[in-house]
Every structure is written in C-alpha cells, then in structure tokens.
Amino acid sequence: MIIDTLASAEKYYGLHKNFKVAFEYLASHDLAALEVGKFEIADGVKAIVSDNEGKTAEVAAEKFECHNKNIDIQVCIRGNETIGWKPRIDCTNPKGEYNDEKDVLFYADAPDMHFALKGGQFVIFFPEDVHAPMIGEGLIKKLVVKVKI
C-alpha cells in the first residue's frame, strides 16, 4: 500500500507501465466535475466514480476486499473518507471464493488499521492489500482507477 499526494504521483510512474497514464489523467481533469459512472481511461486502465453515503466501519468491513488482476488507485474527491487495511498474508477468514469475473475476494477478518484521506491524497492498493473503503459520514465522492496487472 502507498499513501501520498497527487502532487508527488510522478515518483510512482515506474512501478507499473500504466501508472503514468493513470496519474496524468488525474492531474489533467477536474475530478470534482467527473460524473458518476464507469469509463475507460486507456487500455488496461478503467475508472469508477461514485458519490455515495459513507458507511460505519462495521458495515464497510463486511466488504473487506482485495483483487488479483487489478491495482486500485483510490482518490477521495469530496467528503471525509476513512479506509480500513490489513495485509492479505495476515487474513485467514475468506468469505466465499474468489470471483474471477468481478476480480474480488472478500474476507471476514478485521482491519489492522484505519487511515483517512483528505483532498489531494491517494492510496494505491496492490493485490497484497485487503481494504474496506467508504467509511465516513455524509456523501463521499471518490474515484477508483483500476490498473490491470
């Protein structure tokens, strides 16, 4: 997992061939003006914009998730979002089987820690990172960039 500011995103271009594309998209668009929905940024780089009511930590933990085929770059656009996290290697209680079509595996484990994102910050979740996003009160607008591995 990496947490940093969008102003420092250039440092991470070399971690994946499509990180530069993803971060340049983020830098060149008014994120607050993005409409809710799913769209393709480039081949292997998709975006999901949501604007939903925040959840309690307990409700968010019901969808404590990780992915095998994608890296998530998550940006909180508006509101205050807290996210739960735990290393996948320490998770021992999967909830069902991995869903290949949706690229998601859920766990019944509890996060080891929680952190908050504020404007201009992002988090990168690799397949090794189990995460429970959207913890907070009120509406939270966020952008998740899915970078295919």
Explained architecture:
This protein is mostly beta strands. Helices cover 10% and strands 50% of the residues. The protein has 2 helices and 12 strands. Strand 2 and strand 3 form a beta hairpin. The chain is globular, with a radius of gyration of 14 Å. The mean pLDDT is 97.
**Number of distinct beta strands:** 12
List the uncertain runs: none
* Strand content bin: over 45%
- If you compute it from the alpha carbons, what radius of gyration comes out, rounded to the nearest whole angstrom? 14 Å
**Which sheet architecture does the biggest sheet show?**
6 strands, antiparallel
Mean of all residue-level pLDDT scores: 97
Order of helices and strands: EHEEHEEEEEEEEE
Spatial strand arrangement across the major sheet: 1-10-5-12-3-2
**Morphology:** globular
Q: Helicity, in percent? A: 10-25%
Structural class: mainly beta
Distance between the termini: 15 Å
Q: How many individual helices?
A: 2
What is the secondary structure topology, with strand pairs?
Layout: E1 2-5, H1 19-28, E2 37-42, E3 45-53, H2 57-61, E4 64-66, E5 70-78, E6 81-87, E7 94-99, E8 104-107, E9 113-117, E10 121-125, E11 129-135, E12 139-148
Antiparallel strand pairs: 1-10, 2-3, 3-12, 4-8, 5-10, 5-12, 6-9, 6-11, 7-8
